[in-house]
Amino acid sequence: MTDELTYQSYLELDTLLSLQNPRAAGSTAVKSTVLSEQFFIIAHQSSELWLRQIIDDVEAAVDAFTTTDDTSNAEWIVDLLQRAAELVNVLNAQLTALDRLPLCDFAMFRKALGTASGAQSEQFQRLAHLVGNAEHDGPLYESFAAWVARSGNTVSDVARRGIEAGIHYRIIEALLHLGNGYWRWQVGHIGLITKVLGNQSGTGGTSGADYLIGRCSLPFAELRALRSQAHLGLSVATS
Ligand code: HEM
């Protein structure tokens, strides 16, 4: 007889809940420090879980842009990008929660992190590559622009026509929504760091906040430049 599926077994909760192991637990640290380190671990682990979903959704969108020439998949692509944007907001909310990390507890367990650092997050690096930055477009934008071109349009024309351009324009809106959420997450991270680290350097060996400020930029530069077109030649007559 096979075991009946339960909430516990379906979600593999025994495994999941065995993965939070604060280093402070085996030391002389007080309960408050152990709980704060657990909070720190959970915030990072759950961020990595959401990053997994975001990357899968964005990669599915890139795949659809690359392998289809018509717009039959386009509604699904909008759904994928909007979900990814919503989940980037969830990442930002996790940082907001970390505002409640007591500074004295963090100072207590931080040494135990050694050189472990968010800079080593492979999933973040993958997402950063997919989304791109102000200087370089990533595969997400490149595959979108190529998909629009194969339909006989240009991104510039779609941006100019606005909602009249239909699904192509809705995808531009979804991309900008995702790009802005991604940027807000980076800015939120910098704000958190200045609060809990001040000008201390990072465990990864960087200068910390200053280093991250230099890396933070808004993706989809062309789309932003094209937004100005809407302001050309359009105005409400005033008396
Ligand atoms: C108290 C909380 C946090 C502190 C103090 C902190 C601190 C830092 C610092 C100083 C860096 C720069 C690299 C270094 O020298 O270590 C960094 C990078 C990074 N952190 Fe955090 N972080 C925190 C929370 C988070 C959370 C919750 C995530 C979610 C996954 C995260 C993800 C990252 C990523 C992805 C980078 C690399 C960013 C880039 O390369 O542009 N961090 N963090």
How does this structure look, described?
- It contains eleven helices and no strands.
- The chain has helices at residues 7-10, 13-16, 31-67, 74-98, 103-109, 122-131, 139-150, 155-161, 167-197, 209-215, 221-227.
- The structure holds protoporphyrin IX containing FE.
How many individual domains? 1
Uncertain runs: none
Helical content class: 55-70%
Q: Round the Cα radius of gyration to an integer and report it.
A: 22 Å
The secondary-structure class comes to: mainly alpha
Question: How does CATH name the architecture?
Answer: Up-down Bundle
Cα separation of the termini: 82 Å
**CATH class categorisation:** Mainly Alpha
CATH topology heading? Methane Monooxygenase Hydroxylase, Chain G, domain 1
> What share of residues are in beta strands?
under 5%
**Heterogens:** protoporphyrin IX containing FE
Compute the number of strand runs.
0
For the largest beta-sheet, the strand count, sense and barrel status come to: none
Helix-strand string: HHHHHHHHHHH
* Average pLDDT rating: 94
Overall 3D form: globular
- The number of helices is 11
Short note summarizing the structure:
This protein is mainly α. It has helices spanning 7-10, 13-16, 31-67, 74-98, 103-109, 122-131, 139-150, 155-161, 167-197, 209-215, 221-227. 63% of the residues lie in helices and 0% in strands.
